[in-house]
Amino acid sequence: KHKLAVFASGTGSNFDAIAEQIEAGRLDGKIGLLVCDQPGAKVIDKATVRNIPVFAFQPKEFPAKAAFEQAILKELQEKHIDWIILAGYMRLVGPTLLAPFEGRIINIHPSLLPAFPGKDAIGQAIEAGVKVTGVTIHFVDEGMDTGAIIEQEAIRVKEEEDRASLQKRVQAIEHNLFPKTIQRLLMAVNREEIKS
Ligand code: GAR
């Protein structure tokens, strides 16, 4: 079974959606670790109730990104993690993790990339007045939301829609699309392994 580490900074609704699909037998992986850079985040409780191990750290307590990513890497190796799933991890991933996990780090972003990268993609979409936005799942490289796109789903922005309502509808798409796309990716990798 593929072992996933989910990285998250906040609420963890995507973390929960992935864990639910695994429990339901629709995603053939296992979450071996939650990595969280906000020791008070709600996602930590979500992992704890599911008995999923947590590595929470305070970035400020490390001299630099390379140092905390080294600490993360050690955890990932100890737990034999195969894939890194960024689910609302609000930080750029550096070379310490990118090199050993090349092609095995994916991220979800609440816009149709390359539109509205970075923070507050939903606020950016409202501000821009776009009629269509959506969700992107992509491979992670050293840039800000720039890696190869794996999957996208569009959503129409309603007249008079505010941030909260758009966020709610975008997240509903995420909770369905993210586990499905991870499953598709894992199955594709399995098929490649059989061939070679
Ligand atoms: C999600 O909507 C995700 O797409 C977004 O953060 C939210 C986390 O929610 N990610 C980014 O904006 C990355 N740049 P969650 O903690 O409830 O899953």
Automatic annotation (TrEMBL):
One of its GO terms (molecular function) is phosphoribosylglycinamide formyltransferase activity. Residues 3-182 form the Formyl transferase N-terminal domain. GO terms for cellular component: cytosol. (6R)-10-formyltetrahydrofolate binds at residues 65, 90-93, 107. CDD domains: FMT_core_GART. The record marks 145 as: Raises pKa of active site His. Pathway: Purine metabolism; IMP biosynthesis via de novo pathway; N(2)-formyl-N(1)-(5-phospho-D-ribosyl)glycinamide from N(1)-(5-phospho-D-ribosyl)glycinamide (10-formyl THF route): step 1/1. Its EC number is 2.1.2.2. Catalyzes the transfer of a formyl group from 10-formyltetrahydrofolate to 5-phospho-ribosyl-glycinamide (GAR), producing 5-phospho-ribosyl-N-formylglycinamide (FGAR) and tetrahydrofolate. Belongs to the GART family. HAMAP family: PurN. This is Phosphoribosylglycinamide formyltransferase. The lineage of its organism: Bacteria, Bacillati, Bacillota, Bacilli, Bacillales. The gene is purN.
